[in-house]
Automatic annotation (TrEMBL):
Entry EC number(s): 3.5.4.2
Protein name: Adenine deaminase
PROSITE patterns per the UniProt record, alphabetical: A_DEAMINASE
UniProt cofactor note: Binds 1 zinc ion per subunit.
High-level lineage: Eukaryota, Fungi, Dikarya, Ascomycota, Pezizomycotina
Length: 337
């Protein structure tokens, strides 16, 4: 595309990437060997026969939950602080090469805790990766802890208490909170009490909604205090709600290649970027789980350009909104604009 160099050079902010979603098949096999962890046997699940077989299986996810099974199985190879630091660093190097200047990254501590890895280990490792990105790459970073919807609320409440009690909280090592994992099934408002408590403390909040779920998942997330919506593509099905989201300047963190791989849309053409631009809905373009969905942030930008042929002006609007809606001080925004 003639705009490729321009798109590569655009200063990017990434708002929707799960660090555990940066765990490539080769890193899964490498860390399994390093940590003496047995992966599912290939007779149980032929996808684990080899790096190539696992990579090939990722091209055939049938739904969010089909993907999540691999995502949660894969992250079981992460055990030590060094594993988490290495994983974060591998993402930041790639993001830097793609032109990312600021990255807000998710992690799922409940899932690590449920297999015996302490909250403090996970956060210390990921924070070390962030520190290194800041000092060696000049990338600004934010860690966002996600609550997962497939585990009981009591588990989320426990990790929220741990988050508050940890010295990292006062130091704002973990900047904000989100929720993720299975969308349709668990109660839409399962984190109502936690979000109310966190909002009262002024903690920045986001939420995965409107990915597989209908627009009522989005309105519920907003009602609970989410200031941003992760995915949100099904917002186009509710024009009234879309008007409100535009008016309130709520950012959607859209992930086009993820939406295609998880069959939320048949192709990137069906990701409603043009409808959002026309309605004045702010959005950023992100990779979600790049090791699983066949591309990092630049691949997502390029896929949008291939499918939608946006103008330089439209790209500038996207890039500017991505900076303006980042959870960073105005001085940092000014450097990025
Ligand atoms: N966790 C990691 N990726 C996710 C996605 N796309 N939706 C919900 N939860 C997730
Ligand atoms: Zn996500």
């Amino acid at each position: 595309s003639p705009l490729h160099d321009f798109i590569h050079g655009l200063p990017k902010c990434e708002h929707h990437v799960h660090l555990e979603g940066c765990l490539t098949p080769s890193l899964i096999f490498h860390l399994a060997a390093r940590n003496g962890i047995t992966l599912p046997s290939p007779t149980e699940n032929p996808a684990y026969a080899s790096i190539a077989a696992l990579t090939a299986r990722y091209e055939h996810f049938t739904s969010l939950d089909d993907f999540l099974a691999f995502y949660f199985e894969g992250m079981a190879v992460l055990r030590t602080e060094q594993d988490f630091a290495d994983l974060a660093w591998s993402y930041f190097q790639k993001a830097h090469a793609d032109g990312v200047h600021h990255a807000e990254v998710f992690f799922d501590p409940q899932v690590h805790q449920s297999r015996g890895v302490a909250y403090a280990t996970v956060v210390a490792g990921f924070a070390a990766g962030c520190q290194r990105a800041e000092s060696e790459l000049g990338l600004s970073t934010r860690l966002i802890m996600c609550f997962v919807r497939h585990l009981p609320v009591s588990s989320a409440r426990e990790v929220y208490e741990e988050f508050l009690a940890h010295e990292h909280f006062q130091a704002q090592v973990v900047h904000g909170l989100g929720w993720s994992s299975s969308e349709v099934g668990p109660p839409k408002d399962m984190f109502r009490e936690i979000y109310a408590a966190a909002a009262a403390r002024g903690i920045p909040l986001t939420a995965h909604a409107g990915e597989e779920g209908d627009p009522t998942y989005i309105s519920t997330a907003l009602e609970l205090g989410a200031q941003r919506i992760d995915h949100g593509i099904r917002l186009v099905e509710d024009p009234e709600l879309m008007k409100r989201v535009a008016q309130e300047g709520i950012l959607l963190t859209v992930c086009p290649l993820s939406n295609v791989r998880l069959r939320c849309v048949p192709s990137v053409e069906h990701v409603p970027v043009r409808k959002f631009l026309e309605a004045g809905v702010k959005f950023s373009i992100n990779s979600d789980d790049p090791a699983y969905f066949g591309g990092y942030i630049l691949d997502n930008y390029c896929a949008v350009q291939e499918a939608h042929q946006l103008s330089v002006m439209e790209w500038r609007i996207i890039a500017e909104n991505s900076v303006q809606e980042s959870w960073i001080p105005d001085e940092r925004k000014a450097e990025l604009l």
